[in-house]
Amino acid sequence: MRLGVFGHREYQGLADVVGMLEREAPRLGIELLVEPDLKSVLPSARALTDASEVDAVVTLGGDGTFLRAARFMDGAPVPVLGVNLGRLGYLTGCSVREFPRVLQRLAKGTVVIEDRMALDATTGPPGGEPVARLRALNDVVLHKGGFARVLRMRLFVDGDEVGVLAGDGIVISTPTGSTAYSMSAGGPIVEPTVESILVTPIAAHTLSVRPLLLRPAAVITVQPEDPPGELLVTVDGQPGANVPPGHALTLRRAERPVRLVRNTSATFFARLRRKLGWGGLVERDD
Question: Is 152 exposed, middle or buried (0-12, 13-18, 19+ CB in 10 A)?
């Protein structure tokens, strides 16, 4: 097995996990390839430059590290296992303590893999050639950046006008992303395997505007009206593109999903309770 390794060097314990991985890899028949930024931590491994070079991926960090690896893989049919070195780690598949056991199962091909829907987004003039193409596992967000005025956005679903939304922006998310920014903006929580597209306004200016839950085949277009300047698009929390006046943002389900190694030690609702404090108060630091 050729195993790609992504990691966040700021996390405590990264060196210990990398050391374990380096020791176990030869015994399990694993060849390690690392992202360039991690080469100094694992100098014996070959640098990873293309998604086609690996059979599986391990991420060492939190959800941000996992999302970065998913973007790099760009829909390649490769399972991604997240090892949680942080606090939340909602997308990660195991803890550091569980990692040696799960690594053996990954090498044997006995892990449980779950396909997660992703989104493809484009920006450009309505009906014209796309200027930018983006891919997201969690969400795509159109927002006004540092401008202090209300943003008006004309929303279309499959070319049918929904109406004009006024607020600070809009979040278009997958079911996987329903527990991220969309949830913070008042959107519903959706089971990750229930394919759908969520449209959640950010700080809507009228109480009548509510989140929408759409079928997965829907095509969503957001066309800003009289924007104060270039608007910003972020993808999975990272800068993606600018939308100048006269341009629009269009989203649809991606052709290829992200293959996520699922944590079988906890159900979806158990993870909600533990990770998000569902049904009770979130634990606070001393």
Answer: middle
Given the residues 16, 50, 55, 63, select the one marked as catalytic.
Answer: 63
**C-alpha to C-alpha distance for 271 and 230, rounded to whole angstroms:** 38
Mean of the per-residue pLDDT values for the chain? 91
**Which residue in 167, 157, 177 sits closest to 222, CA to CA?**
157
Helix ranges restricted to H, the chain: 14-28, 63-73, 99-108, 181-184, 268-276
Q: Check: CATH 3.40.50.10330 for 2-116+258-276?
A: yes
Q: What is the pTM of this model?
A: 0.90
One of 3.40.50.12780, 3.50.50.60, 3.40.50.620, 2.60.200.30 is the CATH number of 119-253, namely: 2.60.200.30
Mean pLDDT to the nearest integer, 4-8? 94
Q: Is 63 among the residues known to form the active site?
A: yes
Of the chain, the percentage scoring pLDDT greater than 70 comes to 97
Residues 263 and 93: beta-carbon distance below 8 Å: yes
Helix ranges (H only) for 133-267 are 181-184
